[in-house]
Design brief:
single chain, alpha/beta, Metallo-beta-lactamase, Chain A, eight-stranded mixed sheet, four-stranded mixed sheet, 16 strands
């Protein structure tokens, strides 16, 4: 499998786990306006909308950078109990086979970056060995936002107030705690640099500890944005949040900042769930912003 794009001298592969119709737009966007969406819907079909439903992807991004192998977000995982979002529960996908098509083995991964600790970004942190949930990438250091580690711990003080605690049921126990117990987790804060020319920046709102992973090389720049954007409509309407955003005011502020930042110097935006070209550029217009196919 060939890389899907480069960031300067760094190679990037896309590892798809799942694709399908996820929800009607009013079921995804908290601030949904039917007329505004209808004006753009034809341009989103079929890459982002099919039969009136948002078409979504679960995908991870694999980066080979100066001898290091870095995996960004790990999808939903196989065989996991997800009672409140069953579309991602008890999956049996060929994610590992697709991963190996990149030419890498599970043992080759040096760093796993989880932009945040939601159900569909941490699932392949672990896999079932017949008795226990064990690290999928045994030689990797797993990078978790320190704020999210605290927020999503069911034994913690913040968890009861989290909007998404039901959707995220069982996630900490089967996909985070085993990594902590194995001593493979590194809890990080704003400005952490996992490797040269790479930095994690706080991008709160979707979750309290959500981070954007910025990668630079030879004049190129890419922003791995996790769930800052679920859909290109949010480039046109940065004020539209997903229903899964914990703090919608902060999420909208973060989204606009990321979009403005990318538009200012032509950075590639690499979200977790985009169909189509799977990553985009952003063009500033007189009235706002437009997504540009990468």
């Amino acid at each position: 499998m060939e890389p899907v794009f480069n960031i300067g001298r760094h190679k990037v592969w896309r590892i798809e786990e799942w694709a399908g119709k996820f929800a009607p737009p009013e079921g995804l966007f908290a601030e949904y306006e039917a007329e505004a969406f209808a004006m753009e819907e034809e341009g989103f079909t079929p890459d982002y909308v099919q039969d009136g439903q948002i078409y979504a992807i679960l995908q991870s991004w694999l980066i080979e950078a100066d001898g290091q192998v870095i995996l960004v977000d790990t999808g939903a995982g196989n065989g996991k109990d997800r009672p409140h979002i069953p579309v991602f529960g008890q999956l049996e996908t060929d994610f590992i086979t697709r991963f190996k098509q990149s030419g890498k083995q599970l043992e080759d991964v040096d760093i796993v970056i989880c932009t945040h600790l939601h159900i569909d970004h941490v699932g392949w942190n672990t896999r079932w060995d017949g008795e226990n949930w064990v690290p999928t990438f045994p030689n990797a250091k797993y990078i978790f936002p320190a704020i999210d580690r605290q927020a999503w711990d069911p034994a913690g003080e913040i968890y009861p107030s989290m909007r998404g605690r039901d959707v995220n049921a069982n996630v900490f126990e089967d996909s985070i705690q085993p990594i902590l117990d194995a001593g493979l987790a590194e809890l990080v804060e704003d400005g952490f640099e996992p490797a040269p020319s790479m930095v994690l920046r706080n991008a709160p709102g979707h979750t309290p500890g959500h981070m954007v992973f910025e990668v630079r090389s030879e004049g190129d720049r890419a922003l791995f944005t996790g769930d800052i954007l679920h859909h290109p409509m949010q480039v046109i309407r940065p004020d539209w949040n997903s229903v899964y955003c914990e703090d919608r005011v902060a999420a909208a502020q973060t989204r606009r900042h990321v979009i403005e930042d990318a538009a200012s110097d032509g950075a590639r935006i690499v979200p977790a769930h985009f169909g189509g070209s799977h990553s985009i550029f952003v063009q500033k217009t007189e009235g706002g912003f437009r997504p540009i196919k990468a």
